[in-house]
Amino acid sequence: MSTRSTTRPTSPATRPPTKRRLGNWMPQKEEAAAQARLQIASAAYERARSTPTAKVVRELAELVQSDTVLRMNLSRAIDEALGAGFELGYTNIDELMIVVDYLASYAPPFDLEVPVATPLNLVLDWPMCMPSGYAVFRDPAFNAQLRRVLEYWCGFLCGPHSRVHLTTDAPHGWFCDAAQRRMSLDDYYCDRSQPHWGFASWNDFFTRRLRAGARPVDEPGNPAGIVNACEAAPYDIRDDCQLHDRFWVKAQPYSLREILAGSELECVKRFAGGSVYQGYLSAFNYHRWHAPVAGTIVQAYNVDGTYYSGLEAEGTDARGLNDSQGYTTAVAARAVIVIEADAPAIGMVACVFVGMAEVSSCRIVALTGQHVAKGDELGFFQYGGSTYCLIFQPDVIREFVPKPPWRDDVAPLKINARLALAAI
């Protein structure tokens, strides 16, 4: 007889007493964040004197200016943030668009102390969590055009001009001694004899591949062993998840019908009452996804959604997007891959890879109908802050390896490492 995991929704006592930014994507201290915004804005205004605005950014500006409600809400969100005393680096929509245009061809530097790996998130930090900002960052037309801007930036990051910081030069080179130690770069394929270590672009580096044997698959022949699908730190585990739930409240329960928006209802119903594991990725770690179980892919699709939408219940806090990760599984842009496990007792496993903030694409490489072994690659995040979850049917999980209380300063669980044990 199987035994259900008894892990329940986390209570305030299990969370860290103070909020911190997760994953080293942006500075921990607001003073450093504000200074970084001012530096970005200064460079943006200087560049705008001699460089025409990109078409996709002009179209974003035109969308905002032509929609009365959108323009009002974004203007008010900026004013509310400034009125609350936050330093943004801009004072109105026109100035914000100059900064957005600059960031559309921005190559992030390495900085261990003051990371700015998601610069647009940093620039939008406070307007997105102001009372008027929530509607802006949920607006479908705004998100659709913002996606085009992010795709444009992704194009830049896929090109050779994005390699400006792919050097050994300290302190901002991604191959400097401090970076090599922080990211364990010996674990990855590269050619140090070549310029930029052989990487064709920033995204080529960001989606770098592990060397053979760097992340061995835990007990590949044991069907009861479920492995970690992303190199991510544990964020939450929930049991008895519902088909529909109040994902917009402080507790952020997982609402399966919303998360698996592109799946047939009968498929989603198989997960009702089941378990969800969620982890968040660091800016410095591996960003490809691997299969948690051996099986056949029965669904593989992308869901369009939001990029900077936080939850009101998390309050006026620049860390609100980090703390809204349960909510983002239901609303943010994401890739969904459903695997029918070879082991009948496991049934289906839904893998949901969520693009938060600057993630301009969630790339699926293992398609419907393909059989995957445990640990095979499923896809990858093409730049930006990310979170992911695995969804299991009821009575499948005997035990999860990660246990609460959840801390925000732990090392990520290695990809292909044991995540859970199935009740087989």
From TrEMBL:
GO term, biological process aspect, one: phosphatidylethanolamine biosynthetic process
Ranges for region Disordered: 1-22
Keywords: Decarboxylase, Lyase, Pyruvate, Zymogen
Low complexity biased stretches: 1-13
InterPro entries, A to Z: PS_Dcarbxylase (IPR003817), PsiD-like (IPR022237)
Single GO term (MF): phosphatidylserine decarboxylase activity
Keyword Lyase carried by entry: yes
Residue span, L-tryptophan decarboxylase PsiD-like domain: 55-183
PANTHER family (alphabetical): PHOSPHATIDYLSERINE DECARBOXYLASE, PHOSPHATIDYLSERINE DECARBOXYLASE FAMILY PROTEIN (AFU_ORTHOLOGUE AFUA_7G01730)
Protein name from the UniProt record: Phosphatidylserine decarboxylase family protein
